[in-house]
Amino acid sequence: MIVPLDEAVRELVHDGDTVALEGFTHLIPVAAGHEIIRQGRRGLTLVRMTPDIVYDQLIGAGCAAKLVFSWGGNPGVGSLHRFRDAVTSSWPVPLEIEEHSHAGMANRYVAGASGLPFAVLRGYSGTDLVAHNPHIKSITCPFTGQELAAVPALNPDVTIVHAQRADTDGNVQLWGITGIQKEAALAAERVLVTVEEVVDTLDPVPGQVILPARVVTAVSPVPGGAAPSYAHGYYERDNDAYKAWDAIGRDRAAFTAWLEELAGEAPRTRPQPAGRAL
Amino acid sequence: MTTVTWTADEIMTVTAARSLRDRMACFVGIGLPSTAANVARRTHAPGLWMIYESGTLGAVPDHLPLSIGDGILAETADTVVSVPEVFNYWLQPGRIDVGFLGAAQIDRYANINTTVIGDYDAPKVRLPGAGGAPEIAASCREVVVIMRQSTRAFVERVDFVTSVGHGAGPGDRERLGLTGAGPMRVITDLGVMEPHPETRELVLTGVHPGVDVAAVRAATGWDLAVSEDLALTPEPTTEELAVLRELTGSA
Question: Has B53 been annotated as catalytic?
């Protein structure tokens, strides 16, 4: 249950898998993404509502064959240049994209978590997303005759999230902005959670989400594993790191140097402080 | 009386802030919309209920967040809900008064593009994509757009309709089943445009002090109509500027 990150990634993430590393600005599983890069996974279908710099890194490293998403950017800074380079120049490998709106992606996860084949929402009507995505269709309400949007359930092979705490049995606790993590975990075949710390008992926190151990495949202790995003109650978002990524991501040579440096780092099996502690 | 100087960006943000009324529920995008909403809340609209798509309802940040999910939003919110709840329980049923959006491109009918410049399959520029905007533009009671004006951004037809404004003209929103009124004001660094009540085409209804109508038309990629009753934007007040500059750190 409680396993080192490198071992968990080796066992749970395979070439060609559909993998969702979720997090809405907060609690982004960055260390897990880096471990996927380090282990050289290929042909992944990466899923995320808001792919940010760790997805830029995974794409630039050539791990992904496809990206399913609704907003891809460096929040508050600008564009993802590795993502742009893959879409416009197929560098380092071609990247197929499937894009939705946030409402569509959120409902796809809800359907996946609910064991339903599709979700219904009021959305997409009149947009050009419909013509460019075969996974957006319309459906007539059998009760009112209203035309609504239908999107297929999203069921990742593996969902990876980062949380503040787990107990020794593998029950997971997260709080603050909890985004889409519960739905993404419950929709997945396998669930890997990296945590700031493993504790004996989980003291209740207002607004918490609990992922019971029975839906969690593995927990890996990785203190600082969400940096440069943040972990509410543990450390703040390192906005400077997001700004600094822009220059690295823009340039293939600078990115390649970054990648070599990452490959040379030891896997995150032992606690190391990261981010700016509170 | 002293003369207060201000920049084009500052009058744009202040004018956008003035579009928000006290106690409105406002769906806030990051960047210019967030700055304007936070100016409004600190001036004439202290009861503005700001919603960020990360799930923070009623956030009252003491500084401008860099992203829609900064910790300061969660710490100060009335409640933090999941992402499906924001879109399904709050936005979709029409509980939000105003959606505040930015755009890379906008067209004569206020349709919005944040997806690609050029052809979708071989884009000249790949932009971040839709995010929450398509449903914000569809389901908020009304939409306010804030963006800088140039012929690159104000185009006859957007390269990609990410979010529907007034479609191809009268009746389109109703035909598409979009429940909100759509973009009712587009505020730029040069002036203010609003849809014509009948044609739904954007019409220049206001200019900022010192801006010629000809300059606004020259910065627009279609033959922009001008209202007979053209307004002149009141200058930013000392208080508005002080609040804005404190927020953006340019005091």
Answer: yes
